[in-house]
Amino acid sequence: MNNDLSDGPKKASVVKLYGKLFLLALPFLPLIAFYFICDPDMILKKYRRFDQSEVYLGEGHVGWQNYLNNRDSIPFNSFIMGNSCTMAFRTDEWEKYLPDGSKAVRFFENAEGIAGVCQKLKALEEVDAQIDYLLIVFDVESLKVTVPSHNTNKIFSCEAAGISQLQYILRNLQTFLMPDKCIPIIEYRITGKYSPRMKSQIREGGPVREPYTNNCLNPREKEIEMNGEDYWISHQSEFHRKERCPGQIDEPAIFKPQNRILKEMEAICRKHSTQLVLVIGPDFYQKKIHPSDLKTLQDIFGKESVFDFTGVNPYTADYHHYYEPGHYRPCLGAQLLDRIYNGEQSSSPSVLPVEEISGEICQPFIK
């Protein structure tokens, strides 16, 4: 009898608690409904194409789904992987140097590190991908990353991340409910108009990627086409000339954890008889990869597979090769591919002494 009396107040307390929780959740219900109806992250169902979304999507997710959705109709056997500088290497340009019938796709992530690339290679193995040719684009910072990113927008596969599909959806929903994400997206969907305050979530202008190949369509290329030399003059604040450090050698980046990951990558390539090209990209600030890091990469992957374009050389000397210091253009990517496949078998481009580089090139923003 006493238990029955005590159960009453407990049940009333539970009901009251759930009532309060419901009231607290009430303001979020329209946002949750919007998320599941509009699917701004494009993760709730299968999509054939991802190039028309106005919302900035997770690049790894787009690359992975793009490959899975199209692998049966397009016999992909060649992969461009690495960080955002893969934008400089177009699949059609690379295919010129591959055997007839080769089909390339770009499968990258922003600020990708060696751990992320290794994770993606393992995922490709899990789905029995044909990995005949591999072009990996890194910089020195990429070599330092020994753990795949756990950020929600960088999870490309639930299986690879070790979470369920439901967990993945809930994590994306939680991220969406943050005001700095949901407000710009909802405002754009309601008004259909872009404003600068939306720039972190909503892209302005046309598509930023091609369908199927996932090649980058950088809007700055159009700006350069329209404005020519005025582009670099108008963007000169982005090019900090005084921060250039020509010939300075970076600190070593490869230690035991990196060594282990790199060897895992090499083992996958060897298992699939993959022809690998690993590019250490031309850093605008002209710092040079540490010799010990370069040697380690050459020892693991083979000297003939590793191409170092860092430091002072004709590629890093010409500011026309860059959208901004962090990203170089497809015109330079095409030059690098030509050097790799048609040039001398060397791990470095021909290097010019600092004093022999044209002052006009090094001091670009004088009209």
Helix and strand pattern: HHHEHEHEHHHHHHHEHEHEEHH
Shape: globular
- The whole-angstrom Rg is 24 Å
What percent strand? 5-15%
Instruction: Please state how the strands of the largest beta sheet are arranged side by side.
Output: 2-1-3-4-5
* Class of secondary structure makeup: alpha/beta
Low-confidence stretches: 345-367
Count of distinct strands:
7
Number of distinct helices: 16
Indicate the mean pLDDT: 89
Distance between the termini: 93 Å
Assembly classification: single chain
The biggest beta sheet reads: 5 strands, parallel
Report helical residue fraction: 40-55%
Summed up:
The chain is of the alpha/beta class and 367 residues long. The protein is 43% helix and 8% strand.
Descriptive overview:
- The protein has helices at 2-25, 29-38, 59-70, 91-95, 114-126, 140-143, 158-161, 165-176, 179-191, 219-227, 230-234, 256-271, 291-301, 314-317, 330-342, 359-362; strands at 78-82, 104-106, 133-138, 275-280, 306-308, 322-324, 327-328.
- It is built from 16 helices and seven strands.
- It is 43% helix and 8% strand.
- With 367 residues, it is an alpha/beta fold.
- It has a five-stranded parallel β-sheet. A two-stranded antiparallel sheet has the order 6-7.
- A hairpin with a 2-residue loop joins strand 6 and strand 7.
- The N and C termini lie far apart (93 Å).
- The model is unreliable at 345-367 (pLDDT under 50).
- Helix 12 (256-271) packs parallel to helix 13 (291-301).
